[in-house]
C-alpha cells in the first residue's frame, strides 16, 4: 500500500513536470545544428531562428539549453515580441526567469520611438528595459542622451 502511494506520487510529479516542460518547448532552426551531449546544449550556426513563448530570436550562431531555455547568441541578433524589436551584437536569455541581456550596439525600435545604447537588460515579467552606456533616445522628433534609461514597454513611458 505504501509503495503504491509512492509510485503514484512519483508518477504524478513526472507527468506534471513533463507537461510543463513540453508547454515551453522551443522551435529551433539553423543551417547547421547539433546536440553536444557533453554540455547538454544545442549548438547552432547560420541563420539561427529560435522561438519560445511567442518570442523570436535570430542570430548568426547560438547555443541553447533546452532544459533551462537559456540562449547564448551572437552575430547580428534580433529579439522580437509583438511590436518590441531589439537588435544588437549578442544576447544572453535567462529563459526561465524571462530576462534578456543584449550587448553591443543595442537598438530598440517601435512606433515613433528609437533607443540606442551599449547594452540593455529586459525583463519580460516587469516589461521594463534598462538601457546603459551612451544612451540615445529619439521620440517624436525629440532627441536626447543619457548614461542610463529605464523604459516600460507596456506603458510606453520612461521611468
Would you spell out the secondary-structure blueprint of this structure?
Elements: H1 2-23, E1 27-29, E2 32-36, E3 41-52, E4 55-65, E5 70-81, E6 84-94, E7 99-110, E8 113-123, E9 128-139, E10 142-152, E11 157-158
Antiparallel strand pairs: 1-3, 2-3, 3-4, 4-5, 5-6, 6-7, 7-8, 8-9, 9-10, 10-11
Plain-language structure description:
The N and C termini lie far apart (59 Å). This protein has 159 residues and is mainly beta. The protein is built from 1 helix and 11 strands. It has a single domain, classed as Lipopolysaccharide (LPS) transport protein A like domain (lipopolysaccharide transport protein A fold), CATH 2.60.450.10. A hairpin with a 4-residue loop joins β4 and β5 (70-81). It is elongated. Strands 1, 2, 3, 4, 5, 6, 7, 8, 9, 10 and 11 form an 11-stranded antiparallel beta sheet that branches. It comes from Sporomusa malonica.
